[in-house]
Every structure is written in structure tokens, then in C-alpha cells.
Amino acid sequence: MAQQSPYHRVLLKLSGEALAGATGYGIDPDAADFIAEKIQHITSLGVQVAIVIGGGNLWRGEIGQKRGMDRTTADHMGMIATVMNGLALRDALEQRGVETRVQTAVEMNTVAEPYIRLRAIRHMDKGRVVIFSGGTGNPFFTTDSAAALRASEIDADIVIKATKVNGVYSADPKKDPNATRYTTLGYDDVLQQHLTIMDMTAFTICQENGIPIMVVNFWGEHDLIRAIQGDESVGTIIK
Which of 42, 67, 68, 208 sits in a 20 to 30 Å window from 49, CA-based? Predict the structure, then answer.
């Protein structure tokens, strides 16, 4: 398959809410198919794809913490939610003929493979999509951190953070009509301007390992594909 992208291997970070559809909660099969279609298009470009998806559509740890739940318990529940999302997305991809594997940092061998770095790379070398679920396997870390960690481990060329906005702005564009969108930022620019891209642990992992971060509107008709093809103008790239 001819390579039609400057990237050999990408890690796509999705929020759990992307699976929720219009309801904002749960798993919507139509939303899963919408995501699967975009990922199928990426693989058709000859790009190896790994995915980390959150679990906020099913459970958010802070909800439990506000009710007095132990933080570790709440985070473990969130990790399990990401596995459920991973299984749903795998099914949607398989229905489209995209061979997919789910690996989880939380051991549940009858449900998904354990996370094994070299096995994941081997899957991608064979053209399979790999979904990393279960976060890092540890409480107190977000799925952003899991995305940055896995991207470093598998030597991903870029982390693409799929959001509802077309990049990083100087202020909230919904509140400030004068907010301007950045097309390119340096890691130090993000720190100095206190811009929120990923949580600080995740951002630091990417910075220390020299992994670019691309923030792109996942819901834009062609934005994700253009970003994968190397068009840095469709979102914001931090490098």
C-alpha cells in the first residue's frame, strides 16, 4: 500500500464522549461507526494507527470523589470504562473490515490482550489498528498521560488529539470573539502562555521525547485526514 502521509505511525487520542453521540452519555453505535469510518480512511493512506480512548461517556472519577469515593477505586472504574469503549470501537472497525486488537493495561485476559509493547508494534506492522485501553494501569493518571506514554513506547511520529475545536486558541473562542487560533506552537510557548493542551504529565512526556502534538477538529469533514496527510494548517501543531 502506498504511503500517502508523512507519518508512518500515529497515535490518535479520542475522548470517551466521542462515542456518546447526541445523548452525551453511553455508547451510540452510530457514533462508533462514524469514528470507525474516519479511522478506516486513515489506514487506507498506509498509516499505522494506535488509539487511546477515554471513558468519560460512561464514568468520570471526579463524580465519585465528590461523593466521598476513594480516588483509587474511582480511577479503576474509569479504566474499566475505557475497556468497554475500546471493545465497542473495535467492533465498529471490524464491521468495516479493519482488523483491530484491543490491548489493556488492566489485566482481563478473557476480554482483551494484555498490553505488550512489542506485540502491539507487531500488530501495527501487519496493518492492524491497536486500541490501548485501561489507561496506564495505574490510578492518578489520565488517558492523556496514557496516550503520551504509549506514543513514546511505540515510537509514534505524532499524537493527534481529536477535539471539537479546530486547534488551540489564545482564549476560549466561544466566550471571546477576539480569540485567535494558533497554527504552530513550541512546547515552551504552551508553558509560558499557560495553554491547556493535555494534562501536564502527558505534555511533559511528549516534550521530553520530542513527539509533536496535533490538535484537530475530529468532527470537521476533512480536517483529520488533511492533518494525517501533513497539512498543519487545519489545526494546531505543537513541536
Answer: 208
Q: How many residues does the chain have?
A: 239
Domain boundaries of the chain, sorted by first residue: 9-238
49 has a pLDDT exceeding 60:
yes
pTM score: 0.94
Give the pairing type, strands 113-114 and 213-217: unpaired
Task: Give yes or no for a contact between 98 and 40, defined as CB atoms under 8 angstroms apart.
Answer: yes
Query: Residue 110 gets which letter from DSSP?
Result: T
Please tell me the predicted confidence (pLDDT) of residue 66. 86
pLDDT band at 3 (very low <50, low <70, confident <90, very high): low
Contact 93, 123 (CB under 8 A): no
**Residues 50 and 158 sit within 8 Å (Cβ to Cβ):** no
133 vs 52: CA distance, rounded Å:
6
Is the distance from CB of 86 to CB of 104 less than 8 angstroms?
A: yes
Asked if CATH classification 3.40.1160.10 holds for the domain at 9-238, the reply, yes or no, is yes
As a whole number of angstroms, the distance between CA 59 and CA 89 comes to 17
Contact criterion met (CB below 8 Å) for 75 and 60: no
Nine-digit cell string for 19:
462515542
